[in-house]
Every structure is written in structure tokens, then in C-alpha cells.
Amino acid sequence: MSERRPRHFGAVPGILGGFVMAGVLFFFPSGAAIGAAAPALSGAGRSSCWVIMDIESFFCPPCLQPLLDFCRALPAVVQEERVHGILVSRAPEAGERAGRRRLIVQKKWLGFRQANDIRFSAVMDDSRFFSGMLKGGFMILLLDEETQSLKGYALPLRSAQIGELMGHLLK
Amino acid sequence: MKQRTLFAVAFVAAAVLAGTPAARGSDRIRNIVLEEVLSIGGLNEETLFQWTGVTADDEGFIYVLDALDYSLKKFDVRGKLLKKAGGKGQGPGEFMAPRLLDGWGNLLYATDQNAASIYVFDRNLAFKRMIPCPSLIEHLKALADGRVAVSVFGFQEPGRILILNGDGKRLSEIAYADQGSSPLMDSISFAPDGQGHFYIAYLFQDRVEKWTAEGKRLWGAKLLGGKKAGTKKIASFVVPGETCLKGIALDGRGHVFVLGGRLAKNPSRDVFVLSGDGELLTTFTLPDTSHCLYIDRAHFLYARGDDGITLKKYRIVYE
User: What tens digit of pLDDT does each residue of A36-95 get?
Assistant: First the structure.
């Protein structure tokens, strides 16, 4: 069986890649930091990754397990310094209710994070930028400093993909 | 088959995230008003993150399952957290996806979405034992004498409420589903009345029914004008589109409370109150959406607030 190949948004610019890069540029100014200040894209000269998470998928154990497996494979210090979470909520609230919704999602993330010993912080996708492109509940974006490209991975990860991500994040 | 069952469980849990007093005959009511008497959790506390199951004992202690920190929690009558048990794992008393909770006497009965067993705790949250079930558990109610009633996910024998003893031995069953119907479409919530009757609310059908312990249907009612849940396709699975009903509870006065689902006028908030004979008496609307209803023996109603980070306790005022 062939390994699933990551999408190289940076190497093969397309509409989706463009949207993601736009998100990279515009997301954090509007995001609400949870548990830490909004992170920089990556440390100097080091690759980092974003974990995009649909909050509703926290209640789907089969969907969730690949994410937890990925987190467990990463040392705590790598999670803290080189992984950033983005929380996506599909709830339709707007205005004042959207603000309350964000606080609720933050609270859920706090409980989930503590119970699973997840060390990276997460921000809320207030602009709903990622909600349309998130399939299957979770997605990982690798900001590859070496090749100056952005690579997207759908979960569950295959072993070669885990190895590739580890290779970048553990450098 | 296992994958289909796991998928069914995950689907229904996602769709729903969804008292056993004796009936004494319904008195006529025209209206019901809720008075909030207690709120547990909320934005400024770290006590609840996503509660899924709730029960209360005769002394007013409240027990809650929390899916996001994999725990069973005990609160006093003022809502103060007294104790926490469980934790993530697959060892004795640990949870991977805590879901349903009910109590009887000194025992609490909990379920995990991924486990074909009932977890038995005492009221001090000490884990006691497991009760094996034939399949993953869809709904659970505790009965007298250490018995439990469960409906299970399973494509081999769908559409049954099983009465089990404390060892998991099947004592009797109620086959409620129509022959040849889809197991997912027959997903239910149910409530026993202490006299051997079971009230059933179908999650994906506009149907509420009353059954005898011997498996005879006494009556059926529609609450949403016969609305259909429809279907949608997820991967290769055809699943119901929307929930019609989400939960059912009895109030000890012979009234049946049914929580409307996504197809209700006020989704996941409308509560239909029926007499024990199936007559619709009144409706009221919860202040916030909820995945379930629970009514304790002192006639307090519990429902969700703030999408599950808050548990609300209400006094039911009959007018």
C-alpha cells in the first residue's frame, strides 16, 4: 500500500494553498490565545506545525485517537515550542453569542488539554477560516523552514508521515 | 461488523450530544415554568467541561459524567465539587468516552461509549465492578434490585430493551422495533416508571411510545407533526439526517417529559409534557439547548447550559 503523500502548498501553489497562506498571514491577529500568547509562525530557522481541530470531533473517540497518538509522539518541549493549535467551531452563533461561544470552546479545550496532558496552546478560529477546509475533524499543517513550504496532512497519519513530521519538528 | 457498530455509536453520540419514580396518575396541568435553583460549572469555573450524564440521589447529591476530562464527579446540594473519580484509560473505573449515568440505592451505573459494559460505582465514587452487556450501550436506566435496563447498538438484534441482572444475565427483553427497520433509525432514549412500563422516545423518528414489561405497546404519539429525520451519507454509511427527539424523563406525578431534537421548533430546547396516557398536556422551552433531560425523585429537572460546561437544576412549577 502506498503512503499518503502530503500536499505541498508552498511547492505547488493553488487556490487552497493560497487560502491557507492567507490564513497564516491573517489568522493570528484575530485569534484569541488560549493558555499562552499567540505564537509566532515558527522559531528562528526551525520548522513548526499547526494542528487544526474541530471541537466537535473531541467527542468522536475514533476520530480523536490519531491526534492523541501524534501528540504522545512529541516530547513536551516540542509541543510547547513548536506546535500551535487552532480550534474550529461550526456553531452558527454571531455577534455577542459568538463571543460567548469562544469562551465556551476555550473552557472545553482547557479540560481536554489537561486531561490528555497536551502541552501546546491553541487559538480560536474566530474568522471561521478553516471550517470549510477541515475534513475529518483534524488536520496538521507543517511549516517547513528547510524547503520554505507549507505541507498539509490529514489524520490519521501514516507511519511515513509521522516520521516526516518528527524529522522536521525534532531537528 | 465491529466497525459498523463503532460508527453507529459515534454517530448517535454526536447526534444527541444527548427518575424512575412510580406513576400516580396524571393531574391536569396547563403550563409548566422552570425556576433555576442551582447552576454548576460555567465560564468562570473549572468543574465541568462537557457533562454527558447526570443523576442525583435522595439526599440531593448530584453525580455527573464529564466527557472532556473522562471523570465521574460528585457535587453536594449547593453544587460544590466533593470528589472526582475515573480518569482516562481502560483500567477499572477509567473512561475513554463517558456517556450515560443513572443511580439506584447506593450504586451508580455509568457507561462508556466504547465499552460493552456498565461501570458500577458506589456513591462515594469507589469503583465496584463491571456488568457485561451484549454490545455497546445506547441507553441505560437503573432498576430496583440491582437490575438495569439497557438498549444496545447491534446489527444482530436491534430494537430491544434488555433487562439485565447485576451479573449481566438477561432476565427479559422488550422488542420495540418494527421488523426490518434500520437499527440507527430505531435508536431510542427510554424511561421506566417503576411499575414495569417503559416510555420510549425515538431519536430519529417522531415517535413516543409506552410499552409494558411483557412487550406490548400501549400507545404511540407524534409530537412534531410527523416530521421525518431524512437521511444523509457519511462515507459509505447512510445515517439519519437530524434528531427528532433527544430524551425522555418522568416526573413522579405520572407526566412524561420529552425533549425535542433538531427538528423541533426550538431545537434541543422544546419539552413536550404528556400524560401517562399519551395525551399532550403542554410544552415549554428550556433556556438553553440540552442533549438530555433528567428529573430526580424530588421533581427537580436537570438540563444543559452553555453547551455542556454548565449543569442547570430547575424546580418544576406546575400551573
Answer: 333 444 455 689 999 999 988 888 878 888 899 999 889 999 999 999 999 998 776 666
| A57: closest chain B residue by CA | B14
Q: Is the dihedral of CA B152, B60, B147, B123 positive or negative?
A: positive
Cis peptide upstream of residue A156 (ω within 30 degrees of 0): yes
B113 vs A101: CB contact, 8 Å cut-off? no
Q: Which residue of B has its CA nearest to A63?
A: B10
Choose, out of A71, A89, A103, A104, the residue to mutate when testing the contact with B (most B CBs < 10 Å): A104
Which chain A residue lies closest to B69 (C-alpha atoms)? Answer: A115
Give chain B's domains with CATH numbers: 2-318 (2.120.10.30)
| CA distance, residue B42 to nearest chain A CA (Å) | 8
Can you list the pairs that B163-169 forms with residues at least 24 positions away whose Cβ atoms lie under 8 Å? B163/B213, B164/B131, B164/B133, B166/B120, B166/B131, B167/B131, B167/B132, B168/B118, B168/B131, B168/B132, B168/B133
CATH, range A7-33+45-169 = 3.40.30
**pTM for the whole structure:** 0.84
Tell me if residue B23 falls in helix, strand or coil.
Answer: coil
User: Which residues on B lie below 8 Å from A136 (Cβ)?
Assistant: none
Domain ranges of chain A: 7-33+45-169
What are the chain A neighbours of B43 within 8 Å (beta carbons)? 100, 103-104, 107
In chain A, how long is the greatest CA-to-CA distance? 49
The interface predicted TM-score of the complex, written ipTM, equals 0.81
